[in-house]
Each structure stands twice: as structure tokens, then as C-alpha cells.
Amino acid sequence: MLKDLYEKYYYEQNYNCAETIIRAGNEYYGLGLHDRDMIAFGGFGAGIQTGNTCGAILSAVSILSMKYVEQKAHESADIKPVTAMLIQEFNRKYGSVLCKDIKPQSFQPQVRCKATIEAACDIIENVIEEYEKKKAQAQ
After folding, report:
1. How far apart are CA 39 and CA 19, in angstroms?
2. Residues 14-23: tens digit of each pLDDT
3. SS (H, E, C) the chain
4. How much is the pLDDT for 99?
């Protein structure tokens, strides 16, 4: 499970939420990202450092992009519906995709954003699984 991988990045290596999700996702899904590539996700943490869109969500969408986009997003039949499913699930859980709204619901000083990261891991896996089932049924 994706959730089994995040602690080594979040706690042992002290990455932020966005960095943790992309690093765990890279390992779990074999995305082929290199360390230097994943540095690009650092600024997404803490809601793009401003309380805006949650960094865990931004990295989750990036995982979907790596899985479902070959060259260009507008040429992928998958990225829009699978991303919509992901955003819908975060909105269902938190009522928002904004860090400033999510953090008060799940942040605890001792464990930081553990609950949000765990939720993101579950949502990513569930969305990919459900999306793949829908695709298979449509064929």
C-alpha cells in the first residue's frame, strides 16, 4: 500500500506533505522520477506555501499525470476524469482542497499533517482502482 511508504519520507527524511506524497508515489507506482525531479514539488507544501491548494493534493494530481499522460495532458482521455474523481474525494472528505481549510481538521503538532497524508494515500489508491475498474467495464 502507498500508505506503508510515507513515514520514511515524512518523518525519517523530514520532507513536507507534497514531497512525501510524490516520493512515496514514485516508489510505489514506479514513476521513474529522479531525486532532482522531485525537488520541484517542495514549493507545493503548506498549500503552495500560502494555505492555498493542499500540497498533498497537488502531488496526488502529479502522480495521476505520470500514470495517465503520455506526452500532453490535452491528448489524454484519462487525466481529466481521473483528476475530477480525486478532487471530488478530497472535497467529500474535507469540504475543500485548500490547505487553510484542511489543516485545522487534521493537523496535530506532534504528528503534523499525518492524517492528511494518510488520507491522500488512501484517496490516490482508491481513485486509481475505481477509475481502472470503470475503464475496464467500458471496454
Report:
1. 7
2. 999 999 999 9
3. CHHHCHHHHHHHCCCCHHHHHHHHHHHHHCCCCCHHHHHHHHHHHHHHHHHCECHHHHHHHHHHHHHHCCCCHHHCCCHHHHHHHHHHHHHHHHCCCEHHHHHHHHCECCCECHHHHHHHHHHHHHHHHHHHHHHHHHC
4. 98
